Amino acid sequence: MNAPSSTYDLVIIGGTAAGLSVAISSIRSGIELIRIIEPSDDVAFPDLVPENRLDVGYGEQLQSVDVVNDELVVNTDLHAYRTRGVFVAQREPDPTWTAPIPIPDSDRVHTDALPGTILEQDVMVIGHTDNAVELVAAAAHDGARVVYAAGGMDPGKLSPAGAHMLRRLERERKITVLYRAVPNQIGDVDGYPISYFDDRRTPDLEFDHIVFASSRQQPKATRAAISDAAVDTGRVIFLGVSGEDPTVPIAHGWNSGNVVADACFAEAEVPPAPVLSQRTRHEGAVDELRKEHYNATITMFEPTHSDLWVLRVRPDTGDTSYMPGQYASLGLGFWEARVDGAVDENLDDRWFKLIRRSYSISHPIFDDTGYLARRTGENELEFYIVLVPPTDDNIPALTPRLALKKPGDRIYLGPKVAGRYTLASVTDPWSTVVFLSTGTGEAPHNAMVTELLRKGHMGPIVSAVTVRNWADLGYLEQHRELEERYPQYHYLPAPTRETDVPKRYLQDLIRDGDIDEVTGQRFTADASHVFLCGNPSMIGLPEDGADGTEWPEPAGVVQLLTERGFTIDRRGEPGNVHFEEYW
User: Fold this and answer.
1) CA distances from 269 to 125, 217, 398, 464 (A)
2) How many other β-carbons are positioned within 10 Å of the β-carbon of residue 282?
3) Secondary structure E strands in 41-112
4) What CATH number matches the domain at 6-91+218-264, 3.60.10.10, 3.50.50.60, 3.40.50.2300, 1.10.3720.10?
5) CA 21 to CA 83: how far, in whole Å?
6) Helix/strand/coil (H, E, C) string of 513-524?
7) Domain at 432-579, CATH class
8) For 157, which DSSP code?
9) pLDDT tens digits for 354-404?
10) Quick one: angle between helices 160-171 and 285-293, nearest 10?
């Protein structure tokens, strides 16, 4: 045993999220002499070390913790410390843990470890604990494009450092968080893992690597190095799960600072861990929450009418490049005011949370000089959004809050532009390309039509959209201008509630040959691509029934097209009927 060379108020074993949380909360409570012992060469969130002036002993291996003259003595392979308290924050994989879904045998699917080189690669991390957040932070630090599937996670139950780092990474647009989604199957496409989701709102996603974050347990070697006499003092606290070892004091990640303070520092006033249920709507809370969560500014907000808007958003940091047809996510807090009188369900519990929704990226058709607008060099994204009214069955959360915004207001913009609803399959410049949409579903088609014309597509291009009234066509004048300039382009708006226009739906355009008429040629499957975005009833995807394919009633566009020889484009099964998977 080394002779104790230093005296500390608290020694923390392990630079995990919980270990960093206890160190930071203790320092802020006036407990200054704190040492973190970390056996590796880094801690979970390295940025927090200089920001909080933490004292970390890197590369120190714990040898023992014992009691000498009523003092705890911590021995490592390099030093010995006298201390009033010890917090054991180290965790190790639980050998009994099994993944919630089968994990394929692949060198691109991992558990609790990142591959060696992931710079500019797509990585998904799956899990809902501090361990998962630590892996997410490490992947982002190494330069990966990270998607975090955190289905079932309550951010308020993470350690304070873990919750802080998750918010920071998301605010800085370094990660995409799927708070409610988790894959139910992992497949393989050409040697790359693909995650399949059972909810329609999350498309199948392909990655370079997928990482599962397992559950963790108390390290047996660390526990064996701590004497029973030290544990009996009540001043050695273990991070763990209740019932894991009933003979030792246990702290959870989110309340570790309070447990350590109660056990070792009766004089300290440690603020409560910031779990969501403990936050209060104090004066200034809205400004604090906006600063904490928002990472972009609304630069344009132009109403087509009171319930329909074109807006542009500029992020503080990060890339805004995208392929025409892709989507991004916008968000506002439940703390924002609503334009209507509806009351959100369980608003008191959700007031501090962020509402996120995915929207297809729209695009200005012409630039300020009158030429076709380009995507290159832009630093903002355009969206086309309609106000969703409340009903007895649904109280919309985001658009009633967005309705009150104006240029200069702050908003959340997700980091990842995604989606496989693109023009990648349109390789023949003489092919017929048809876009069918309902309402604001024409948003992605604005960028796609502009891209085709800008690149010199020579074949017929048709864009048809159904809306209730003429006033619901936010881009009508721009599309009419396109028709005048480009003879191969045809815009077919179809308002369904105007007295001077016969009521017709997109299915009627297929049945009645409208596309054939405007293009002057037969609309056939062998030389055409069709893109569908909008109401799922209009699209009409089939389901697998007991006796084979079952089509919805009434028939959607997909059924009408397949009867004419068209095929549905699915991942791994290319076709010429493409549909947007978000609604």
Assistant:
1) 36, 29, 38, 65
2) 8
3) 56-58, 62-68, 71-76, 80-88, 92-93, 109-111
4) 3.50.50.60
5) 19
6) CHHHHHHCCCCC
7) alpha beta
8) G
9) 999 989 999 989 988 888 888 655 689 999 999 999 998 899 999 999 999
10) 70
